[in-house]
């Protein structure tokens, strides 16, 4: 039996003296599968099974279809609020989260380092408890993963990693949704990473094998991924029958790859290393020469902002580049994350083939 939330919302509006009418809103059936994410934290994709990550992508596609393409109004988060802590500035993370949460009827509250000093003027424990009493969830974009771990331990509400020095899980969800839309399936794809052994690569390593994707990564010497992350990624590859290789040769990593991926060479907080890094990353720019050794159906991803030394214009603005759909999908995937962590909503869209 379908649950019609529209009727309940309209009755509640009348009781409170409002005269608006909620149209085109109909919830799906209560969650029937084994995936249940409500109340959990999203600190790293390491903590989620393949089926759980697939569920978030399924929900992303469902919300995108219903809201963007069908024009439905889905106030799934009406009456809920989200605390947004940003130690690092951002375009896509802030816009996608603020607009997405508001589009679902909720209230996002943006906090910068001018508003809140994590662990400085108030302990992380106290901050977590205060936010737990006033908001329904917190998305934190921080420098240290350990700060997120403490927030999650002390808070009684879901904590979402908006980026840390170690992981960037919400970016990878957007990447995978983009590839799912383009290729129709993720299983069997080879991801070719060319760049720094950073939080983006770490998040790919914690999830790609769970979809049956192979990973070939090239990083300069001294800029390899974290050894503990590598060890766990090798275990995932073995368990899922996929291949993972690490090299210092960009062309070796690109060879036969379906998806060429890179990121900034100089993240926020690394500005003093700029000269050293630019020298170390010589030869790592993604160009058509790189693409020549990739698979015939190659595409390109970059989480932005992009610098020309990382990828030239010919690749970045080519028809093979998916960077702008990738950026838009940050919105639909973060919407799916907050819906899955805060509600019992179940997708109406038929589950995609992953």
Automatic annotation (TrEMBL):
Q: Which domain of life is it from?
A: Eukaryota
Write out the GO MF terms. amino acid binding; ornithine carbamoyltransferase activity
What reaction gets catalysed by this protein?
carbamoyl phosphate + L-ornithine = L-citrulline + phosphate + H(+)
Look up the signal peptide feature and give its range: none
- Mind telling me which InterPro entries this protein's record contains? Asp/Orn_carbamoyltranf_P-bd (IPR006132), Asp/Orn_carbamoylTrfase (IPR006130), Asp/Orn_carbamoylTrfase_sf (IPR036901), Asp_carbamoyltransf_Asp/Orn-bd (IPR006131), Orn/put_carbamltrans (IPR002292)
Q: Which keywords does this chain's UniProt record carry?
A: Amino-acid biosynthesis, Arginine biosynthesis, Mitochondrion, Transferase, Transit peptide, Urea cycle
Stretches of the chain forming a coiled coil according to its record: none
Which residues does the UniProt record annotate as the domain Aspartate/ornithine carbamoyltransferase Asp/Orn-binding? 187-340
Q: Which intervals hold domain Aspartate/ornithine carbamoyltransferase carbamoyl-P binding?
A: 40-181
Q: Which GO terms describe its cellular component?
A: mitochondrial matrix
| TM annotation in the entry | none
Q: What class of enzyme is it?
A: transferase
Q: Name one GO biological process term.
A: citrulline biosynthetic process
- Pfam families given for it? OTCace (PF00185), OTCace_N (PF02729)
Where would you find this protein in the cell? Mitochondrion matrix
* Cited function: Catalyzes the second step of the urea cycle, the condensation of carbamoyl phosphate with L-ornithine to form L-citrulline. The urea cycle ensures the detoxification of ammonia by converting it to urea for excretion.
Assembly and binders: Homotrimer.
NCBIfam families for this protein? orni_carb_tr, PRK00779.1
* Protein name in UniProt: Ornithine transcarbamylase, mitochondrial
Q: What species does this protein belong to?
A: Panthera leo (Lion)
Supply the gene name.
Answer: OTC
